[in-house]
Amino acid sequence: MKTLKDVISLKFKTSESEGVIFHGEGQQGDYITLELKKAKLVLNLNLGSNQLGSIYGHTSVMTGSLLDDHHWHSVVIERHGRNINLTLDRHLQHFRTNGEFDYLDLDYEITFGGMPFSGKPSSNSRKNFKGCMESINYNGNNITDLAKRKKLEPSNMGNLSFSCVEPHTVPVFFNATSYLEVPGRPSQDVFSVSLLFRTWNPAGLLVFSSLAEELGTVEMDLSEGRASVHIHGSGSKRNRIDIAA
Q1: What is the CATH code for 2-156?
Q2: pLDDT at 107 (0 to 100)
Q3: Taking the CB of residue 224, how many other CB atoms lie within 10 A of it?
Q4: Where are the domains of the chain?
Q5: Per-residue pLDDT at 196
Q6: pLDDT tier at 119, thresholds 50, 70, 90
Q7: What pairs with residue 209 in β-bridges?
Q8: Whole-number Å distance between alpha carbons of 181 and 179
Q9: Using CA of residue 93, residue 96, residue 101, residue 102, what is the dihedral sign?
Q10: Phi, psi for residue 120 in degrees, rounded to 5
């Protein structure tokens, strides 16, 4: 396929921070890859380079953050020659690709949800997408509908299911005055706690516990957007440990 214009749109949601959303490449060195890296969206595009090295077409653009929140996110890529509009959740970013070529020349299949192993170093270091996609549209073709009706030829769909499994985690919302108190385990000599949290507030108390036998307290909090752990000793071992991240 040799195209001057492309319009690609889809919606996705995932709890994974890494994964290839779609990929296509050609024998001339052209490629287009949309992927998640560190929970950010990255578009890699190359409309062609020359063997002399005087034309270098690789272009990489990053947008968004915290996209592994298991909420639906909408992506639209509109390309006319070297001019690209990348829209993520209605946030538009315009840029021009590097190089001097206008056509995207793809010889192989386009893959959604991952990329085939090509033997290139870039292919084996990338994870496949793990999550849900819907409303996949590639240059006017409703890929989701065609895949469901098995109208894509040739296709290798692998283990796909046309439903979206919700995570089993149950979130708890706290306002400025609410808190959750649970019984401790005074007979154990190990204190262990783990949690996932999201907040727009730069400060707040996350966890607090008094240690048994009045040995002190453990506190986990946010201060100026940084998570910190404070361990206060009492009695004969009066000491304090502060760990920030």
Answers
A1: 2.60.120.200
A2: 81
A3: 8
A4: 2-156, 169-244
A5: 85
A6: low
A7: 218
A8: 7
A9: positive
A10: -75, 150
